[in-house]
Amino acid sequence: MRATGIVVEYNPFHNGHLYHVAQAKKIAQADVCVAVMSGSFLQRGEPAVVDKWTRTKMALHAGVDIVIELPYAYSTAQARQFASGSISLLHAIGCESVVFGSENGDIAPFSHTHHLISSHRTEYEAKIHEAMQLGLSYPKALQHAYQHVLTYATEATVDLAQPNNILGYHYVEAAHELTIRPLTIPRIAAHYHDENMAHDTIASATAIRKALFDTKNLRDIEAFVPAPTYEALTDWQTHSDFIQWQTFWPLLQHTILQKTPQQLTQYVDVSEGIEFAFIKAAKTSTSFAEFMQKVKSKRYTWTRLQRMITHIFTGYTKELNATFTAPRYIRLLGITKNGQAFISQQKKSIPLPLISRVASSDDAMLQFDLQAANLYDVGANMTRSAPRLNVDYRTPPLRL
Predict the structure, then answer these.
(1) Who has the most CB within 10 Å: 29, 32, 215, 259?
(2) DSSP sequence for 158-224
(3) Which domains does the chain show, CATH number per domain?
(4) Are 299 and 331 a contacting pair, CB within 8 Å?
(5) Cα atoms found within 13 Å of the Cα of residue 132, Cβ hemisphere only
């Protein structure tokens, strides 16, 4: 059996994701699709709209054969670390390829871009450092450095101003370090950050979440998601609100205000005096949106600030982060019969522990994942009719 991998968040799963799964198997000529999925907190520094188990169920009903969890250390990291952790797990489980969405669906410009940057790596990194010293945000610093090395280009390259292309470049970069083949398909109809639903059946996850938060009427998004997703979201709504930072605001505000500025600097990404702004804003804000408007500046993107906030909320310190240099296990969240057959075929060659029951492992990286999941549930319990905790300890991998 041949497997292809995809890197996902499914926040939530929609018709564009359904297309991605089907096309991934098709262009990779694969029997099995493995999704490495972020858990409770996501790459843009925000809690998932519904929990990992609900999103796993959506994926299994839509053609994904195996869902594994991307550890918190990578799911909340910048694009390069996010991609590196994801690709290494797909490689470890035995995927021969990885398929991602991009703006034009052509892998050649990504390969050319990777070769270009690799050939001028020292100069590229120096330009990034130079730009950040001048006060540019990390994404803008990357653009500055990229525009510089583009002067050496002799073949078509990708536009790294597009969010999906940035991640795609880092997938290709990580894949080149391993024996895994990068492939890409074009995104259809909706772009990554589109907030409008202009197409009849395709909308971005951003637009779908906006509709869920604004109206809370699932009928507004029914045409844009597969039936199992709609059913899963309906079930979730019967016992909880859809999750966003505002849901957690009282807990986040409490967490920030009980820390000194010096204590806040121990958390990943918190630096350069932003800790004082966090405390000042937390003292005077009545909502998460108001808090963010008070701390946002040209120096800090919304996403960068949210990542800092996520690490403060979960207690993810720089000291702990320094100990996590590579994924150390494969956490199984869900599997189909087809996926089980693949695992049986691969089991002896998988180099990392394959974890189905979390109680069987005391790995520090996994323990932090469990802590983050519990804190997610504490926040969700503020709107949930039937509160719950320690769900990961009581939930085996979902089987379809």
Answers:
(1) 32
(2) --TTSHHHHHHHHHHHHHHTTT-EEEEEE--SS-TT-----SSS---HHHHHHHHHHH--GGGTGGG
(3) 3-103+186-242+326-399 (3.40.50), 107-161 (no CATH), 245-321 (no CATH)
(4) no
(5) 13
DSSP 347: G
User: Any idea what DSSP says for residue 151?
Assistant: G
In total, the chain counts a number of residues equal to 400
pLDDT at 197: 54
Q: Is the peptide bond before 327 cis (omega within 30 degrees of 0)?
A: no
Residue with tokens 């409008």: 196
Binding-site residue numbers are: 7-20, 101, 164, 187-188
What are the tens digits of pLDDT across the range 151-204? 999 999 999 887 778 899 999 999 999 989 999 999 876 454 555 555 679 999
Pure H helices in 331-363: 337-346
- Residue 183 pairs with which residues in a beta bridge? 99
Max CA distance (Å), the chain = 60
Q: Which residues of the chain form beta strands (DSSP E)?
A: 3-8, 32-38, 66-70, 97-102, 181-186, 330-335, 354-355, 398-399
**Binding residue ranges for ATP:** 7-20, 101, 164, 187-188
Rounded Cα gap, residues 40 and 389, in angstroms = 13
Average pLDDT over residues 334-363: 95
- CA separation for the pair 328, 354 (Å, rounded): 10
CB 57 within 8 A of CB 305: no
- Distance CA(71)–CA(16), nearest Å, equals 24
Could you give the CA distance from residue 316 to residue 240 in angstroms, rounded to a whole number? Answer: 26
Q: How far is CA 254 from the centre of its chain?
A: 26
SS3 379: helix
pTM: 0.94
SS3 360: helix
- Name the β-bridge partners of 32: 3
The pLDDT tens digits of the residues spanning 137-154 come to 777 888 899 999 999 999
